[in-house]
Amino acid sequence: MTPLVVGQLLSPEYSLGLVALSFLISFAGSLVALICAGRMVGADGKPNLAVVACAAVALGGIGIWSMHFIGMLAYRLPVGISYNVPLTVVSLVAAILISGIALYMAGGRRKFSRAGWLAGSLLAGLGVCVMHYMGMFAMNMRASMDFDPTMVALSVAIAITAAGAALWLAFNLRRLSHQTAAAAVMGVAVCTMHYVGMSAASMICIAAAPTDALAIGGSYMGLSVFGTAGAVLIFIYWVITGTSLDAPAASRRARTS
């Protein structure tokens, strides 16, 4: 291996397997979020906050954050990379909260709202960008980052557009075949924003990186995140579909009592 020189521009490579996993988890998270969105408002017109929370975790925590983190792990440099735990956790919580608020603004108040959709799209898009770049700054490595403002602006535009499409699709599609196609489109959009955002950064070799006791890393972390996210999605789907299946029986019991 050629020794690195301080000030050298580092050339990144990607693990294609993890790139594929990042799209797959984004697609799965988006699909479950779309299914949840159709059940957010009950027959009485009131939002079911538990379902809103499930949708937020599926979209923000799995479809967006897990995709981004696996995409970060797919990013390989000729220097070691670990991730600051507090910043990583904050980015996860932020993604879930922002997604939940955006979903509620768009369709959690009795019906789909155009004004709420526009506001939620802007909030969610900017929130995704904050989460993404917070995740990049959580990287602990022997390199500094230099950003291209044009590419950063492009990633912001893609994030807002993708968020708008995701929220519109969530409340305007009901057939599973349409939701599946929409989830694939959303997965592509989220991945595009992420990898455009990554391309905005140039990595410059430095002499040393500060020691970070609260850092995590490892070659199997991508698979661990994918497995954990997949298990959470299966649980959310089971809870949501179980609730919807129990609802008719509950309504029948209420009518007969």
Automatic annotation (TrEMBL):
Domain of life from the UniProt record: Bacteria
Keywords: Membrane, Transmembrane, Transmembrane helix
MHYT domain: residues covered: 14-204
Pfam assignment, any one: MHYT
Segments passing through the bilayer: 14-37, 49-75, 81-105, 117-139, 151-171, 183-209, 221-245
GO cellular component entries: membrane
Name recorded for this polypeptide: MHYT domain-containing protein
Source species: Variovorax paradoxus
